């Protein structure tokens, strides 16, 4: 091939940078927020496409405007672009429903995360109105948390519309809690159970223990567990903000459930034995992608 033919062939090669911005944006919208941000460093044309509303509109949940309206008393904050809206929802939790529910986006994937405050949960009142004390907490994003004063039967339930979560996404539900430094009781026995159900069907059930303590278990029950151990019993993890969380179970919302208003996710924490309990501080039940 002569020199002229070679030059002509090279001129006919189409590079990615030569594609219209709309084409690049369409491709980037099929990736993830993290990948789109990485591609922005490839070239100026990629950066322009990666910043476009066409890309970030795909990463935002369909109800993002409603979420922003609910947190701002009908006045959405000024947003310069769809990416700005995405960053607003992924930088920190937005409080909705009168401040009793927190919603935010997982920055890497764009999946919705939801936390139901203690006020949105069903708490046992078998000992009357003095079973729980509602109080502010310096480490909570919510106005109040619930501290258990005294009860014998302890079961905590939470409900969430399936449509509130991102479909085709694997989630874990967590109970976010603390234990009073003094005066706690009855929270150390490995006879506690969590259940996660979707659409009335149990998705997972696990044995858990909020505050593992063999000495306390022996003191109140007179002996250790009959099986001599706690194999398979889930234990809490201490977070950086010093709240503890324990995984209640996992779930997945399919596309059919996401469009049915009546479909619900229900989570529960229950102590299977009846004995005095106190000192549990409940902040929230949280749903986040895994």
TrEMBL record:
Residues 13-59 form the F-box domain. This is Putative F-box protein PP2-B8. It comes from Triticum urartu. CDD domains: F-box_AtSKIP3-like. InterPro entries: F-box-like_dom_sf, F-box_dom, PP2-like.
